[in-house]
Design brief:
The protein has helices at 15-32, 49-59, 109-119, and strands spanning 9-13, 39-45, 64-71, 84-87, 97-105, 125-133, 146-150, 156-157, 173-176. By secondary structure, the protein is of the alpha/beta class. The chain has one domain (18-151): 3-Layer(aba) Sandwich (Rossmann fold), CATH 3.40.50.2020. Strands 4-3-2-5-6-7 form a 6-stranded mixed sheet, sandwiched between helices. A 3-stranded antiparallel sheet has the order 1-9-8. Strand 2 (39-45), helix 2 and strand 3 (64-71) form a beta-alpha-beta unit. Helix 1 packs across helix 2 (49-59).
Length: 182
């Protein structure tokens, strides 16, 4: 079924391409961690919730789930550079493997901030998985341990990614050709 999207949205990754990226990431994650060691998958809200759910199911082993909400965007299309934690995790992560699940890395500020915050709780490890990585936009030293794909420097929406809290429910990922809503 074709999605109803604005004329200035161009599909970058369809449903099948996203499923394949998620399955490949899950396989890499399964082989990274010993089966007898606990993993806490921390989804970064709001954008990563769809990816987080699909990834946790695809990992196909018992993991703990928690969420953080951090923001550096507000309602615009560019990062403000100031990161705020709006919701912190509730799980005790001491001596556990933590996997931060993010839908996209842009400037890297938010993930660097989150990783540093989580390291203060003495986990066994903190690794980052990102479906998309905009390496061209990196402003700080922050790299994901697992990446679905590197995406060109476009504003993208769908599959959890929003534009002013809209378009998260699109099943595919789209590039916005211009930043005016038609």
């Amino acid at each position: 079924m074709k999605e109803n999207v604005p004329a200035n949205f161009v599909e970058l990754y369809g449903v099948e391409a996203i499923r394949k990226m998620v399955a490949d990431l899950a396989e890499r994650i399964r082989t990274e961690y010993p089966e007898n060691e606990e993993i806490v998958c921390v989804g970064v809200l709001k954008g990563a919730w769809i990816f987080h759910a699909d990834l946790v199911r695809a990992i196909n082993r018992d993991v703990r789930v928690d969420f953080m909400r951090a923001s550096s965007y507000g309602h615009g299309t560019a990062s403000s550079g100031i990161v705020r934690i709006l919701k912190d995790i509730e799980t005790d992560i001491r001596d556990k493997h933590v996997l931060v699940v993010e839908e996209i890395i842009d400037s890297g500020r938010t993930l660097k901030f989150i990783k540093e915050r989580l390291l203060q709780s003495s986990p066994k490890s903190v690794k980052i998985v990102a479906l998309l990585d905009k390496k061209e936009r990196r402003e700080v030293d922050c790299e994901a341990d697992f990446v679905g794909t590197v995406v060109p420097n476009h504003f993208v929406v769908g599959y959890g990614l929003d534009w002013g809290e809209k378009f998260r429910s699109l099943q595919a990922i789209y590039r916005v050709q211009d930043e005016k809503l038609h």
